[in-house]
Amino acid sequence: MTTEFKTVSPERAVQIMRAWAFHPWPMTVQDGIDVYTSLGFKGDPQEPRFFTSDMSPSKTDSSFIVSEGVVNSCRLRLSNWVSSEHWAMSLPRSRNAFTSFVNSFTEILGKPFSTEDEETDFSAHWILESRVGVDLGGNRALIILSIDSPEETGYLLDDLEAEANGEEIGADYF
After folding, report:
1. CA triplet 154, 71, 99: central angle to 5 degrees?
2. Chain-centre distance for alpha carbon 169
3. Model confidence over 67-93: pLDDT tens digits?
4. Which label site among 43, 50, 82, 165 has the fewest CB atoms less than 10 Å from its CB?
C-alpha cells in the first residue's frame, strides 16, 4: 500500500470499460483472458481468472467470476489501494478521479441508471441496451470498475421490478 492516491487516466478507464462492456456476451473464460491480455494485463498462470491491472502490473488485483464456463462479472482496479491512515488525505483525489471517470463514462453510456453518494463512498451504475451492467465504485481507499453480464444484470432488473410491484426481492431464486 502507498500513501499517495493514484489512478489510471479517464481515457484509460474508458478503454478498459469499453473492452469489457462492449465485448459480445456470453463471454467464455478464454474470451475474458483475451480481453484482459488485449489491455496489456497478465493472468495468474495457476488461476487465469485473476489478472493484473495498470495499478499493479506484477501482482494480480483484478478478476472475473465464472459460472458453468461463462463469465458472470469482472472487477477491475482503476486505482491503487491507500492504507487507512492516509484516507483523509486521499478522499479529495479519489472523489475527483471518480467524478472524472463518471463524466467520461457518461459521454459514452449516457446518464447513469443510478448514483449514490455517502460522503466517503460513492458509486454510479449504468445498464446498457445489451443489458450489460457497468458499475463504478469509489471510496477513500480505491476505485473499482465492475462489469456484469446481461444475465447478472437481469437479476438486478428482476429485483427492481419485484420491488416496484411490492413483491419480495429475490423470492423467485429459491
Report:
1. 70
2. 23
3. 999 999 999 999 999 888 888 888 999
4. 165
